[in-house]
Design brief:
The protein is globular and about 45 Å long. The longest helix has 17 residues, at 141-157. The chain has helices at 45-56, 68-75, 96-101, 120-128, 141-157, 164-173, 177-185, 196-206, 210-219, 233-241; strands spanning 22-23, 26-30, 37-41, 61-65, 84-88, 111-115, 134-136. The protein has a single domain (6-241), classed as Response regulator (Rossmann fold, 3-Layer(aba) Sandwich). The protein has 242 residues and is α/β, with parallel strands linked by helices.
Length: 242
């Protein structure tokens, strides 16, 4: 089911979540003020409001913003703080990557980048900016909620002794490629999960190390020059990264 559904849209003025807000699935229940805060940035009103309602129904304090420039101002000049950002790629003022490039990777929250038309070049540019989580449009509510929850739990997961991948992706989010490689190289081979070699290749690529990235891609059965491929690479990359 797509979130582009006018029946899901809340009343006018309902985009900004107050400190406590009724759950759309249970109007008599108020979300706690310390519930995770999510900012959804999308210029399409029906998509944005649908995302906000879907996330609120799962216990998030979700807020919508239709202007990418206004979102950048909220996150920088006004200093608003969120636990996760959901950002559309194709927007008329600043596209999603231009918006993300205006944020400090060491301080910004995890980001889910969404697009209906993104190709390999867009995904590669996003990775270079430290965005390693993607979702193709049209957005499906259950998958949106799952991915936002995954971004929130990754930081918690990284405290576990064997959470090599979560820690490596945390370094990638900050564009700290050498730290990510150190984490991945310390990961015992017998404990590695399926995307380990792919992540190693991608980190080498982001660090402009073509020789090691190509070798890792070969082991991961990932095509060289993938960033020149079409949009089909987007969901496959998201699937592999979990």
């Amino acid at each position: 089911m797509s979130l582009v559904n006018p029946l899901l849209s809340p009343p006018a003025g309902a985009e900004s979540a107050p400190a406590t807000t009724p759950s759309s699935s249970n109007p008599g229940f108020s979300l706690p003020a310390d519930a995770p805060r999510v900012l959804v940035v999308d210029d399409e009103t029906s998509v944005r409001l649908g995302c906000v309602m879907a996330l609120r129904s799962d216990g998030f304090l979700a807020t919508g913003e239709g202007s990418s420039r206004a979102a950048l101002e909220r996150l920088t000049t006004r200093g608003e703080r969120y636990d996760v950002l959901v950002i559309d790629y194709a927007m008329p003022e600043l596209n999603g990557l231009e918006l993300i490039a205006g944020l400090d990777p060491a301080r910004r929250p995890p980001i889910l980048l969404a697009s209906a038309h993104a190709d390999g070049a867009v995904a590669c540019a996003a990775l270079k900016l430290g965005v390693w989580d993607f979702q193709a449009k049209p957005l499906v509510p259950d998958e949106l909620r799952r991915r936002v929850r995954r971004l929130l739990t990754r930081a918690h997961d990284s405290t576990a002794p064997n959470a090599w991948l979560a820690r490596a992706l945390g370094h990638c989010q900050r564009c700290a490629w050498s730290d990510a490689l150190k984490e991945l190289q310390a990961w015992p081979a017998q404990e590695q999960v399926e995307p380990a070699t792919l992540v190693i290749g991608l980190v080498h690529q982001m660090a402009d190390d073509a020789v090691n990235s190509d070798a890792a891609f070969k082991r991961a059965r990932w095509q060289r020059g993938w960033e020149k491929a079409g949009g089909e690479i987007w969901p496959e990359l998201a699937r592999r990264l979990g």
